Amino acid sequence: MTEAEKWGLPGLLAKIRSNDASSAFTMGVDINSLGLDLDSPEPLFATFSTPFADNRSRPVIPEFTLPGGYTVTNVPALATRMNAFSDETLFFVFYQNPRDVVQELAAGELYSRDWRWHKELQQWMMKDSQMAAPIRVSERSERGVYIFFDANNWRRERREFVLNYDHLDQRHGATQPQAAL
């Protein structure tokens, strides 16, 4: 008769929790000698999580299968659908997928819609077409009214701003001073 059979699981747990047992386990008693099959993929006991937990158990997640109706196979690749998304959806994809290919895809589509990434402010911006054209301040900067996308408040904000062309991300196309935005 094994130790587990002699005491049953509650008795085994009591022994493990006792001072004598914990010192025996820390002194190198082979836990396999308790008669438990530790190599089994099945749980040792349906509601047993650990002998050291204050709460007794957590429910075991039952086996399940996904119904075939939920499997969708005719979805086009995301890269082919980027141009159909709204600006806000592209911003969502951009901000929710850092360092991912889809972040680059969203950035490329935003760039094609005249949004530009300001590296210093870490924000998307574009010229405000409803306002007067920006005025050239120097060879590498201009002053004008721009629309910024504020990701923290999830809204567009109109601001007067002095734009230095060197602060714009150049990965999606060269920025020309006369057509910076």
- The level 1 CATH classification of the largest domain is Mainly Beta
Helix content: 25-40%
Would you tell me the structural class of the helices and strands?
A: alpha+beta
What amount of the residues lies in strands? 15-25%
Order of helices and strands: HHHHHEEEEE
Which architecture name of the largest domain does CATH use? Roll
- Rounded Rg: 31 Å
Give the total of domains. 2
Oligomer: single chain
Shape: elongated
CATH homologous superfamily assignment of the largest domain: CCR4-NOT complex subunit 2/3/5, C-terminal domain
Q: What's the CATH topology name of the largest domain?
A: SH3 type barrels
- Structure annotation, total helices: 5
Question: Can you lay out the helices and strands and say which pair or pack?
Answer:
Blueprint: H1 3-17, H2 19-26, H3 78-81, H4 87-96, H5 101-112, E1 116-118, E2 123-127, E3 135-138, E4 141-150, E5 155-164
Helix pairs in contact: 4-5
Describe this protein's structure:
The protein is built from 5 helices and 5 strands, in the order αααααβββββ. Strands 1, 2, 3, 4 and 5 form a 5-stranded antiparallel beta sheet that branches. The protein has 181 residues and is an alpha+beta fold. The longest helix has 15 residues, at 3-17. Residues 175-180 have low confidence and may be disordered. It folds into 2 domains: 1-64, no CATH class; 78-171, Roll (SH3 type barrels), CATH 2.30.30. The radius of gyration is 31 Å and the shape is elongated. Helix content is 27%, strand content 18%. It has helices at residues 3-17, 19-26, 78-81, 87-96, 101-112; strands at 116-118, 123-127, 135-138, 141-150, 155-164.
